[in-house]
Write a structure and sequence with these properties.
This protein is an alpha/beta fold. It is 42% helix and 12% strand. Mean pLDDT is 91; it is low at 1-38. The chain binds beta-D-galactopyranose (GAL). Residues 56-57, 62, 90-92, 167, 274, 292, 294, 325, 327, 400 line the site of beta-D-galactopyranose.
Length: 442
């Protein structure tokens, strides 16, 4: 079985991220109002004195990633002031609500963090964000990003955001000492959900928490990885175009596994964000947490060593599948400083910006034109993730906006949280998921 477990002494694998086309190394500041070949009437031309940037990279290791990006921004754009409008709450749990209110009140920030994929359709349908495909031409981004990403960004021939990074959501982060204490070999990755559950029984019997789980969006993220494991990539994709029924028996099997996994968790963490839930794994109080690879930034910031203090592997049953999400920044309609937005989009898409940011954030650059030397600056985990993204089957994350519009993801979060808290039976839960996604494939 191919694994992405990092064990001490294992050499970095050779890299195979597919490069698509030449790709210029764009490092331009983009702050001028009349860039070469552009017309002053473009929506991204105008006031560049400042840029207010809404993200949810407000605390902990995620804040460190943003800071690394802002450092490059300040170097590239000395005349544009960066205004940090970050709001606490992993997964955008609070930022998205505030953003929706600001956009509805026609009081947009200059740019905001969103996810590439279906999440953008809510903003596009409400005409709250602007087509920036012309900026892609100006900054030569079509050659810089892989086709698989450009496809996910394109809606009816238009592109509405610029990605800063690519994250993988189907990763288990584990404490090898806790696994060993239960008499298990941490280098033996369970092959599927049933094998993983059997291991958790042993860890529970040894007196440790097998799995930690936090607030609603982290619960949805766990569920989506169980769906991928049990349905496989094709049937999982079918959940979003109507070709796999949410009320099918396969989905019921996955919900049953999810219900079983909950029995290994500590319910006192259900209101916590991802980082406190992960901390029990860091501290050797729990064995596993399923989280996106922003988690590696948390381990790094606490000087933990991959292969020794922690290990990682694809959620059992999802090997060879890359559960994809990408943070992507927009130009809102009516942004007060569109020239500042252009400067931000220029920095986040530049090689320098993507390398500085992603090295700290745990993700991989969205650009596919890094040299071998540039790739070698990344951690072993990230080099493996680059390779996986180039060769695995890519599916879209529900919890992080790639698969479904915001309204549907929110409705799924509500149904999942209710089930996790014991407010619905498994049948009721499945019926609520059917309701949450009604209208798909039409
Ligand atoms: C995701 C986002 C990641 C990370 C994560 C946890 O939605 O794409 O970059 O911020 O939430 O907060």
């Amino acid at each position: 079985m191919r694994r992405i477990v990092a064990l001490a002494g294992v050499a970095a694998l050779s890299l195979s991220l597919t490069a698509c086309g030449g790709g210029d190394d764009n490092q331009s500041s983009g702050t001028t109002e009349e860039g070469e070949g552009t017309s002053a009437s473009q929506p991204w031309e105008g006031d560049a004195s400042e840029v207010s940037v809404t993200t949810w990279w407000e605390a902990g290791s995620e804040k460190l990633g943003l800071e690394a990006l802002v450092e490059v921004f300040n170097e590239q754009n000395p005349d544009t002031e960066f205004i940090n409008a970050a709001l606490a709450g992993g997964g955008g749990s609070q930022a998205k609500q505030k953003l929706a209110a600001d956009l509805a009140a026609q009081n947009p920030p200059d740019t905001f963090q969103a996810h590439a994929g279906a999440e953008l359709t809510d903003y596009i349908d409400a005409a709250q964000i602007v087509d920036i495909s012309g900026l892609y031409d100006e900054l030569k981004l079509r050659d810089a990003f892989p086709d698989s990403l450009i496809d996910r960004l394109t809606v009816d021939g238009a592109i509405y955001s610029v990605p800063s990074n690519i994250h993988r959501a189907n990763v288990v982060w584990a404490n090898p000492a806790v696994i060993e204490e239960a008499g298990l070999d941490p280098s033996q990755v369970p092959a599927d959900m049933d094998a993983w559950i059997a291991d958790m029984e042993k860890i529970k019997a040894a007196g440790k928490t097998p799995l930690t789980l936090g607030m609603a969006w982290t619960q949805t993220q766990l569920l989506e990885t169980v769906l991928i494991a049990d349905l496989g990539a094709d049937a999982y994709n079918g959940l979003f175009d109507g070709s796999t029924a949410w009320d099918s028996d396969e989905v019921k099997t996955a919900l049953g596994h999810f219900e079983k996994l909950l029995t290994f968790t500590d319910s006192s963490l259900y209101s916590e964000d991802w980082e406190p839930a992960m901390q029990l794994v860091v501290d050797g109080k729990a064995a596993y947490n399923v989280m996106g690879d922003w988690a590696i930034a948390s381990f790094d910031s606490q000087n933990k060593e991959a292969g020794k203090d922690y290990i990682y592997f694809p959620v059992p049953g999802t090997d060879g599948v890359f559960d994809f999400l990408a943070d992507s920044f927009t130009l809102p309609d009516g942004a007060p400083h569109p020239g500042g937005t252009k400067a931000w989009l220029s920095t986040i898409s530049s090689k320098e910006g993507q390398i500085a940011f992603n090295k700290v954030k745990g993700s991989i650059p969205a650009r596919s034109d890094l040299s071998d030397d540039e790739k070698a600056e990344f951690s072993e985990y990230q080099q493996n993730a680059m390779e996986s993204f180039g060769q695995d089957t890519i599916v879209s994350s529900i919890a992080h906006g790639a698969a479904l519009p915001v309204k549907m993801s929110n409705a799924i979060n509500d149904a999942v949280a209710k089930f996790v808290e014991g407010g619905s039976s498994l049948d009721e839960f499945q019926a609520e998921l059917v309701d949450a996604t009604s209208g798909l494939g039409q």
